[in-house]
Amino acid sequence: MGRLTINLMKKAAKQITLFLYCSFAFNSVTAQGIIFFEGTWEAVLIEAESQNKPIFLDAYASWCGPCKYMDAMVFPKQKLGEYYNRHFINYKLDMEKGEGPQIAKIYKVGSYPTFLYIESNGRLIHRAIGAKSVEKMLLEARKVKSTTGD
């Protein structure tokens, strides 16, 4: 092959790589799963009050297999993200680090994962325990929304 052919192949390969990268980046933005708020527990409560939304708290432990499954296979799903991001302030908290032990004591978290639905004033609305499918997570969320009157 001539030098010109090799240069054209390299250029085409770069363009294909760029195209694939851009396609992946676009899909990552448009196909969004649950977005988790980052900050302190107090900041989450303030954010929930300012947006007039309940909090969805994923109470997890770093060593928990079902928690890792939820992170990898359920929380990233677009369908779940669309509902949870619209109706809740979503928050993840390792119950064994930082503020976690204090929150675990307040809400009596002893199993992982535990999913807590909490009003902005800190009152517990609903508790669910164990890994769940997207469909079951949506059922839980809809049950919570029906009791909050929104």
Estimated helix fraction: 40-55%
Overall 3D geometry? Answer: globular
Number of strands: 5
**Main beta sheet strand tally, sense and closure:** 5 strands, mixed
Low-confidence stretches: 24-30
The protein's oligomeric status is single chain
% residues in beta strands: 15-25%
Average pLDDT across residues?
87
* Annotated CATH homologous superfamily of the largest domain: Glutaredoxin
Number of helices: 6
Radius of gyration: 21 Å
Measured between the Cα atoms of the first and last residue, the distance is 67 Å
Class based on secondary structure composition and strand pairing: alpha/beta
The first-level CATH class of the largest domain is given as Alpha Beta
Number of domains: 2
CATH topology of the largest domain: Glutaredoxin
CATH 2nd-level architecture of the largest domain: 3-Layer(aba) Sandwich
Q: How would you spell out the order of helices and strands?
A: HEHEHHEHEEH
Q: What strand order characterises the main sheet?
A: 1-3-2-4-5
Main features:
alpha/beta, 6 helices, Glutaredoxin, 150 residues
Structural overview:
The chain has 6 helices and 5 strands. The chain has a 5-stranded mixed beta sheet with strand order 1-3-2-4-5, with helices on both faces. It is an alpha/beta fold. Residues 24-30 have low confidence and may be disordered. The protein has 2 domains: 1-30; 32-148, 3-Layer(aba) Sandwich (Glutaredoxin), CATH 3.40.30.10. The radius of gyration is 21 Å and the shape is globular. The termini are far apart.
